Amino acid sequence: MSSSKKVYTKDEWQRKLNEVKIRKSDMNRLVMNYFVTEGYVEAAEKFYKETGTEPDMDLGTITDRMEVRKAIQCGNVQDAIEKVNDLNPEILDTNPQLFFHLQQQRLIELIRSGKVEEALEFAQEELAPRGEENHEFLQELERTVALLAFEDTSSCPVGDLLDVSQRQKTASELNAAILTSQSHEKDPKLPGLLKMLIWVQKQLDEKVSYPRINDFATAALEDPAT
After folding, report:
1. 193: closest CA among 36, 58, 29, 44?
2. How far apart are CA 159 and CA 196, in angstroms?
């Protein structure tokens, strides 16, 4: 079957790509969208000065949002909650799952600091009642409390909760909720386009042999498989 596929050389494929005209202004807006959605204020300001591309939101609101995100990433969850409530108290009032995950992160930080008694008290008073109302919450709570059963968390089956990636996950969820409350898209467009590119390449793989992009950091075209 593979031998019946049409084969495109790298030069042929590059010529086809060159035929697709993309306006520089559209690319600039795509980059700016990524900067403001992810909260890179300084990069957004510099990019605006260099290209004249207007951000689609007030950069001042980005600074407030990034202070919240930074607090989570530093483990200061209560500080993040207070900052969110200052921005818009309805964000947490109307999103019980997000509030539970923030409280779960507070529990993780207590465990990380070795405050066992305080962690158990916090879990019982703040999280257990929510777990009784929601089976999914209860499972997440049990998984988090399981950290206390291991002296060496490096070999703990739930040790990933102590990874920096867990803080990032919680911070991203909160960041998305703030964006939604401000009537902005919660996700940048660029990752979505990359996912679409991956999907399109998989579709093309079934029909033609062509130079693929496997390294998205460099976007280098690789010679087609023969």
Report:
1. 29
2. 33
At residue 22, the 3 state secondary structure works out as coil
Closest CA to 69 of 182, 175, 179, 176: 175
**Can you tell me the mean pLDDT for 40-68?**
90
Q: What is d(CA 148, CA 112) in angstroms, rounded to the nearest whole number?
A: 10
Q: Which residue has the tokens 């950069």?
A: 59
Element (H, E) at 186: none
* Reduced 3-state DSSP string for 57-90: CCHHHHHHHHHHHHHHHCCCHHHHHHHHHHHCCH
Task: Please give the pLDDT value at position 70.
Answer: 93
DSSP 32-51: HHHHHHHT-HHHHHHHHHHH
| Model confidence, pTM | 0.76
- 3 state SS of 212: strand
Give counts: helices (H), strands (E), the chain.
12, 4
DSSP string of 104-161?
HHHHHHHHHTT-HHHHHHHIIIIIHHHHHH-HHHHHHHHHHHGGGG-S-GGG-TTGGG
The answer to whether 101 and 170 are in contact (CB under 8 A) is: yes
Rounded Cα–Cα distance for residues 46 and 66 (Å): 17
For residue 13, give the 3-state DSSP assignment: helix
- DSSP-assigned states of every residue in 158-171: TGGGGSHHHHHHHH
Distance between CA atoms of residues 162 and 170, nearest Å: 12
